[in-house]
Protein 1
Amino acid sequence: MPVNSAKTQTGFTLIELIIGIVIFAIALTFITSLIFPQARKSVDPIMQVRATELANTLIREITAKAYDENSQNNTRCNDDLNDDGDFDDAGESACTAIGNFGPDSSEFRSYPDSNFDDVDDYHGLQQGAGYSDAIIRNSLGEILLVNGKNLYAGFSVSVLVTYDGDMDGIADNDQSSKLILVNVTTPSGETLQFSTYRSNY
């Protein structure tokens, strides 16, 4: 009886290999399309936290200042000390008109001359990426550095101040409160808005 000595060969044909590679490429494309957006989204919360820290720091700095340039010592602006309906007597002064908000010509927020002294000095402040002052600074006008690197590189911040006495978020002529709006833009282009009020006290 003859013995069949031919060995049976097993393996993949060329067509099977090509089909396998195509399936692997499709699966890899599907997986990476899920992973890469998630990786980007995982960075967004970090940027949002940093933006929140920046806004809170700036808001604390602004609200720690005097309410108005015309508030002096223990006298508030718009205090009618003798109840005569005006603010033109000794010791009285009107609050700054909204058209005059912003720093005076002698006030700066850059090192070493940082000397903003009241809330509305910050009106129109713009610092960071895309602005003429491309560096976000602290209250002393210094660059915020950590290990020699700019802590807020790529971020930008802008501030608007307006009167909003009834605190409804809409500017009005009631000078008893100022609405402070702080917009922080992250390096990815997301803008977060923060706001607070400073009352005349």
Protein 2
Amino acid sequence: FWAFWPRTVWGSLRSAWHLEQQRLGRLDKGPWTLRNDVLNAWAMSVVLWLGLIAVFGIEVLPYLILQAVIGFSLLESVNYLEHYGLVRQKTASGRYERPAPAHSWNSDHIVTNIFLYHLQRHSDHHAYPTRRYQTLRSWDGAPNLPSGYASMILLGYFPPIWRKVMDKRVLAHYGGDVTRANIEPKRRAQVLEKYGTEVGS
């Protein structure tokens, strides 16, 4: 998770800006406009923070920054555990296969279900992205996390424990073929050496 966190935070910012640039370009507009959804979201945050600082004083600023970092870090923790080790394969045409339930982890545990409005049925969200969260379904054959989101998020903060719990599940999902899994580039050689003997087993 700690290697994933900076990549995803920075990558998400760059990706969001790039997508808005493309969208606005199709409308013959530049990116520096309030029609840019990235800028108007940041502007709303600035207005909210200025309002809170005006009411509570500058002393509230460290808490605002802390809650923002914790907020997006929790979001990225969920993103990490929902997709750990899973990857869409390339088809013969060179394009990636369509998103399907097999491309994300489910967690059909009652506490997560109650608090997160079926968010943990992420496989259905992948297959049908316009379906409302409250109506997301469980899928037979979709990979399942061994516990609910709260405990899995905590596990994710301790990489050796996380890998001990999750790596064997990723390997089982791909029928022992570790080369089909999504592996952190820096650890690829190490992972292939550890699990490579199980390819095809």
Protein 3
Amino acid sequence: MSRTVADAMTPTPIVVKPQTPLNEAVKIMAERRISGLPVVGEDDRLVGILSETDLMWQEAGVTPPAYIMFLDSVIYLQNPATYERDLHKTLGQTVGEVMSKNPLSIAADKPLKAAAQLLHDRDIRRLPVVDGNKLVIGILTRGDIVRAMAANQD
């Protein structure tokens, strides 16, 4: 029998809201030793994800985009919109200002193999598990998949 996401996911994960102060979310992640948190809106539907990568901007800062001057014009060598987004993350004080929006998610009844492939192909560490109404019912991490593999060896 093929295993599903529901077989390996962590049910009812800790979630935060966009208005949650960033320092509170960081404290939760550090105390619980987790690397990311699903972010839900007022209706409890998934709206984003806060990961360690999102938090790195707070410490690392941001470098302005490279540009050249040509005939009194500024020509950016990188997209200035990316700089603005990264700057916003650097200065953010709430989860909503720093989180990654529109995260990938997966349904609990999907094959575990498909979830593993998605995590690998997109080089992401976690997938929120949602029901048909986009309500977060679990989280699936790479570690969950490894533990499911180990349990299958017994």
Protein 4
Amino acid sequence: MPVCLRLPLTALLALLLAACAHRPPPAGAPGIEVVQAHAAQAAREARLAEVPGWRLRGRVAFAHGQEGSSAQIDWRQQGDAFDIRLIAPVTGRQWRLHGDPAGATLEGLDGGPRHAADAEALLAEATGWVLPVRELPAWVRGARGPGPAEGLAVDAEGRPLGWRQAGWQLRFPDWLPGDPPLPRRIFAERGKASVRLVVGQWEPAP
């Protein structure tokens, strides 16, 4: 003879709530932390977009496999136009890479200035330094560059910890105070190539 199990209404509700609490989210649904990270980053990028002109000064280190070098860097950005000066620490030799998405010019070479449509390829061919010029104007300010980005994570204050974009893994281990705060150190790695930028000074461009 079957036995009927009777439970008080409060106990039945408790069982139902426990079952719902352990139910996994629907497949493909982003977690709350992911949604919050993207919302914080979108708000940050909206504020940065209000200031299209800036200047940073600091040091940059390039590495590719076992080879590496470093330079002082003075970078001015005005909208899409960039003007990057690199100064060797010992000899004081200087290179100037300037242009916009339509093309770039590299000065300071023994054979005279060179011009090319791709600023990153131009610098790499002439000096061996790999610098993602297209994406860095956004990255150096802790913003995502053009194109898809994956793996975004933020800290407790809403500042980005890093993400993956254009084949590069980005990390932001240190920040300067401000409103919004700007990165003090930017690390980017792609395969055997890496770029480490340490910012000593930020200022808005006139």
